Automatic annotation (TrEMBL):
Protein keywords: ATP-binding, Membrane, Nucleotide-binding, Transmembrane, Transmembrane helix
tRNA-binding among keywords: no
Domain called ABC transmembrane type-1: residue spans: 34-314
Cited CDD domains: ABC_6TM_Rv0194_D1_like
Domain ABC transporter: 354-592
A GO MF label: ATP binding
Protein name as catalogued: ABC transporter ATP-binding protein
Compartments, record wording: Cell membrane
Lineage of the organism: Bacteria, Bacillati, Actinomycetota, Actinomycetes, Kitasatosporales
Biological source species: Streptomyces musisoli
Main localization (coarse): membrane
Amino acid sequence: MPTTRATTEDRSAVRTLLRLWPYVRPVRARMCTAALVAIVASCTGLVIPLVLKWMVDGPVADRDPSGVWLGALYLLALGVAEAVLFGIRRWLVARPLSQVEAEMRAALYRRLQRLPVAFHDRWASGQLLSRATTDLMLLRQFLAFPLTFLLVNGVTIVIGVAIMLVQDWVLGLVILAPAIPVMWTCAVFERRYAQVTRRAQDQVGDLTTVVEESVLGIRIVKGFGRHRSQVRAFHELAAVLRGTELRKARLLAVIWGVIVALPELAIGAALVLGSVRVADGGLSAGTLVAFLSTALALRWPVDSIGFLLAMSQEAATATERYFEVMDEAPETDTDGAAAGAADGPPPTAARAGLRFEGVRFRYPDAPPDAPPVLAHIDLHIHPGESMALVGATGSGKTTLTALVPRLHEVTAGRITLDGVDITAVPREELRAKVAVAFEEPTLFSAGVGENVLMGAGDGATAADLDRALAVAQADFVHTLPQGTGTRVGEQGLSLSGGQRQRLALARAVVGRPRFLVLDDPLSALDVHTEAAVEAALRQVLADTTALIVAHRPSTVLLADRVALLSGGRIAAVGTHQELLRTNPEYAYLMSGDEEDHR
Ligand SMILES: Nc1ncnc2c1ncn2[C@@H]1O[C@H](COP(=O)(O)OP(=O)(O)OP(=O)(O)O)[C@@H](O)[C@H]1O
């Protein structure tokens, strides 16, 4: 299962999180206002101990009931002000942050659409899914809460400690004593937590992949009675994830223990020391009350640091995982020197059509010592000609067809359309010129008509749709409950294989492409339907240059000529009959039902 596992050891969480700035920038004013409001709210809480001091040393000592009531009123007003301010903060950030999350998700989706097929070959879909969902949710939570509160709590702690030192510097120093061990624990925690978080988030991605694969492959799972082993595999992965989450919980428990216990001990020590000094008359009771209330008011800001740091680490990991995808180079529109030649020289007879010149191709993730899938391909398909591509299974036919619309890039050599290097043609233009249909037809969760019209530009009409459906012998569409508006289920699973293939073929021909690349498009059809499709397709192919991967003589007969792919080269080119006579490999590949088609 391909996943990416980056190391987080040398990562700076701050530097990683700073990469979020371009997305946060548009809402920076609201974020700053919200942080300011939160700081004011938090500091409002610190005024309460000072009111308490005033009450204890004043009205309480003087036994003045009206002064005590006034003090109580002040305390109530401060409490209400604090609550209202925190409410305003929440209101300020909620909407802008969901906007940030939505924008980041849209950017990720845009990038995924633009990343080359080689990237998608390499990445497990669950890893991408978990980045688009869990990771982005973690980022929103970080921006809404820890980002603000690490700042707010930091400021509150500094102001609170300053107030305590001003009240009584000896007791203040007692309270400050745990600061160094707490900071050291935080630093160690951060490093360890970063690694475990990364592992957990990657494991969520793996688990998502297993769930997705077993849902999509439910027929295979059931058909082969593999449900128990699938459940076992899921349980095993879930147990690994649970172990990692428990490790996270243990780390959190340790830091929480240290962060809570040490300051509590310090408060206890300050309480004893302060009480002794009040008894000796060296400290007023009001000052001790104010001091301890301030210390208690700082408990939450200090205690929360543990989980705020944990959430920040998770957010840093999520950012890292997000940018692993965003940093991948998307498909460029045109490449280097060839760009600009798209308008190119007018095609001459020798140059027109589809040409492969010394094309070599190796999959980027193939082992370095493996031979290239395509070693040296030279092939010329004339304008309006249809060429069948025949070869043993695994000889590279699908690979060769994928090079024409640039789903993969040639390793060496070049492919030209009407004399123009395909790398010089903007991809959008190239893919408008070249239509494709693959053996495994993918349909999207949309209406049948929408699925077919995906193959045409915006100007396509209902007549174009009907023509394409007729060519592909897909008239069964009209008998569906809502005709061409009928939605096909996820991946079109509610249709038969042959029906899906015919829709994919209709999608390929609906835009009247100049070049057509078909990868064994009729393999799932019965002979009668195949013959009908071929008859209709022949009219389409009359003015289209086509490359058709074929396994069966019936499909080969669609084409004007046949190319035999063998050993990474075009071993022979000729008509079906010529090759049958002169090429033993071709004759062998076509043996079986060839007699019916002579
Ligand atoms: N994404 C990939 N990464 C690495 N190698 C690949 C990839 N896709 C295919 N291959 C390898 O490339 C070779 C050619 O595969 P390809 O699918 O082009 O053959 P094919 O002639 O179309 O086969 P078939 O007739 O069975 O469809 C095979 O050895 C295959 O293992």
